[in-house]
Amino acid sequence: MIENVLVGQFVETSSVFHRLDPRSKLISIFCIVIAFFLIDNAAGYLLAGLFVFGCITLSHIPWRIFLKGLKPILFILSFTIVYHILFTKGENLLFHYGILSIYIEGIISGSRLVVRIILLVLITSLLTLTTKPLELAYGFEVLCKPLKKLRFPVEQFSLMLAITLRFIPTIVMELDKIIEAQKARGVNFEDKSLMKKVLSYIPIIVPLLFTSINRAENLANAIDARAYGDGSGRTRYKTLRFETRDYIAMSISLFMVGTFLILKMLGG
Amino acid sequence: MLTFDNVSFAYGQQAVLKNISLQIMEGEFLTIIGPNGSGKSTLSKLMNGLIQPYLGQILVDRLDTQSPQNLKEIRQIVGLIFQNPEDQFISTTVFDEVIFGLENIAVEPDKMQSIAEDALKKVGMLSYKDVEPHKLSGGQKQRVAIAAILAMKPKYIVFDESTAMLDPNGQKSIMTLMQHLHDEGFTIIHITHLMEEALKATRVLVLNGGVIVAEGAPVDVFHNSRVIENNELDVPLPLKLKGRLSEAGIVVPKQLVTLEGIVDYIWTSN
Ligand SMILES: Nc1ncnc2c1ncn2[C@@H]1O[C@H](COP(=O)(O)OP(=O)(O)OP(=O)(O)O)[C@@H](O)[C@H]1O
Ligand SMILES: [Mg+2]
Fold first, then answer.
1. Residue A201 three-state SS
2. DSSP per residue over A59-112, as a string?
């Protein structure tokens, strides 16, 4: 469990996506997401589908891992499709019974939306599956640098993100320890009634909060003691550099936006 | 030289340190002992400007800790190792942890790798370079904390009960490391509640109720029964043994303070 949280969803393979600069990945995914929102005809869906299929194949990450990422949204997907089928009115009646009438248009618009969501989830999982959380955070920090002019504390924000990632395993371990300790004292976590269930978590949350506050103070001291200052005037060990592959990736993404824009204009 | 000149400190209304004057010379191994709440940690935080006195002045190699523009340099000169190994590990890997301090003092990126690796080698943690903190023992984390400080090339290293949360093996290994660093020329300031550890120092300082109540060579301090009783201190085992031996008529020379030394003396002296 601890392993899972630390690496996020990252899966190590030697694909080109793993070698891309996190910044170009963030920019590209942003473009692709915009492109996918422009889709409104069958040709567009086909092209987008092929594109996602190609990317996933290139990533060398097994399909089942991508499909696992779809599981949590299964409910939303089914809800979307049922909602559209039941409530979209159209010209071509497919089925009628009492107050229930189902139109072909409903089925079509529902499936379109579902396909679009699936494509978006797959392509964004590609980002988190091929980039370590810390790299992503660093890429994000560098991209946000211009915000510093607006007094947004970019460095501190990035340190905060990094520390959060660092302490997730620690806190998970602590949580395990507290739960064990409270079980040993006879706290019952298996109670069925909701109220009792909620109450039984208080003896876990309170100690966890207490140790976390204590830890935050110690951490602040440790950071200060090592001359972090206000985060300005630091040098960075890792310097990000765009390679040819990064420019190619970003060009392809921009090209996708253009293509979908043209498809949309032709179609509508 | 690290100088405290009539320093007083309070948390709100509660006076924690009263009129402390103290000089720490380069090359010293100073141990600070005293009961809980006597102000030891407060003293250590004053040494690198984490907190500021309300009276008096603290100078680190002539740099006043109360001038904000001195703080970066002071924190590079005075390294602080804390008690809790977990809460001073900021980064996600051992190597990054050492890099963090180097980035803060704006070391050139090209030089960072070799500096960090040298520091890790010194504490014997180089082979753990890419390991995440939750896979390390407490003692290993403390070693990394020491490497992270060493990489910043400090002059003074302050250990605030840095062995307190470790098992006996961890404690011993950190003490040995401390000794090595002192031999290499670092000035060591060691806060501890373990009297056996205090014997290793060149000077011991006893703090109680925010004032320095005794100070001197470890043997002198621990032989002063008034100091021991008034400050709830425990006599280190070797000295206890010497006391019992002298009751039995065997007088061991004053300067022998290790068990090995005493044993050697007894079986060679007759
Ligand atoms: N952040 C704080 N806010 C308020 N009071 C504090 C704070 N930190 C310490 N104190 C109080 O200041 C006094 C001295 O604390 P300090 O931590 O310096 O003692 P210490 O000698 O290090 O004790 P210990 O052996 O327990 O580590 C104590 O009475 C403590 O309660
Ligand atoms: Mg303390």
1. coil
2. HT--HHHHHHHHGGGHHHHHHHHHHHHHH---S-EEEEETTEEEEHHHHHHHHH
Across A11-38, b (16+ Cβ under 10 Å) vs e yields beeebebbebbbbbbbbbbebbeebbeb
| Shared-domain flag, residues B153 and B258 | no
DSSP B187: E
Co-location of B190 and B66 in the same domain: yes
Overall domain count for chain B? 2
Q: What is the pLDDT of residues A94-149, one digit of tens each?
A: 888 888 888 888 888 889 999 999 999 999 999 989 998 878 888 988 898 888 88
Q: What is the pTM of this model?
A: 0.82
Contacts A173 to B, Cβ<8 Å: 134
In 3D space, the residue among A203, A178, A201 whose CA is nearest the CA of residue A190 turns out to be: A201
Question: Cβ of B87 and A162 within 8 Å?
Answer: no
Enter the DSSP assignment of B180: H
pLDDT of residue A244: 94
pLDDT of residue A225: 96
DSSP for residue B235: P
List B15's β-bridge partners, or say none: B10
Q: Flag if A234 and B149 touch (Cβ within 8 Å).
A: no
The domain in which residue B86 lies consists of: 2-233
CA of A216 to the centre of ligand 2 (A): 17
- The tokens for B215 are 């100070």
pLDDT band at A8 (very low <50, low <70, confident <90, very high): low
Across the interface, of A163, A169, A239, the residue whose CB is closest to B109 is A239
CA distance linking residue A106 with residue A83, whole number of Å: 9
Assess whether B126 and B144 both reside in one domain: yes
> CA B94 to CA B147: how far, in whole Å?
10
CA dihedral B197, B200, B206, B207 (to 10 degrees): -60
**Which has more pLDDT, A232 or B210?**
B210
Residues A206-243: tens digit of each pLDDT: 888 888 888 999 999 999 999 998 888 889 998 888 99
Any idea what the CATH number is for the domain that residue B59 is in?
A: 3.40.50.300
Whether residue B189 sits in one domain with residue B227 = yes
